[in-house]
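Slide 14.
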Amino acid sequence: MRARLLGVLATLAVLIGFVVVYFIFILEEAPSAISAVVKNGQAYLTLQTVGAYGNHPYPDWVSYLGKDPEGNWVHTTYFKVPAHSVVHVTVYEFDTATGLRNNFLAAVRGTVGGTESVNGGAAVKYVNASLPAHTFTAPDLNINVPLPGINANAKNQCSVAPCSNSFAHNTITFSFRTPGPGDYRFQCIVPCALGFLYGFGGPMQTIGYMDGEIVVT
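Slide 15: predicted structure.
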């Protein structure tokens, strides 16, 4: 009985240790914010979404990254944009499609013209619900942009971020107008968290991966 109790306590200690590490390295470490590039009164925000961040000590999770004004890719989901402005967004999508569980999210909403463009093609208001790898969704701004993933059989796929444009990817562009100053939450709505219940745990709930804020200043 004593040996069994010690075993239970040892297992509990290990589990508590994992929880502590999770909070220290994932939840408590706030990523830095990057600012959009402002030129001639227009703001430009460049992002990428990847199938695996894969840089120690962080988990090998799907993730967003942002490009800072100096042209460096930063592992963050805090993006600063000016108030009462048009923000032009470019997203390089390097991940493969997972698909949506709700066709409502396949429609583009809240962007200028209610459209997005994929790989320089015509502006579209809706994508096939089976195609998105991720979404750029900010409920408080009424923004939803599905981000079509690359073909699962595409050659030269990127495995560890940041990814250069020499790897297989889709380029999605859209614009939106900002309101007054405030912090507006955004996240991916695609259930892309492999290994988590219903695909919505882990990176889907973690700032710096698939969850973040648009900071309007």
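Speaker note: The two ends are 61 Å apart (CA to CA).
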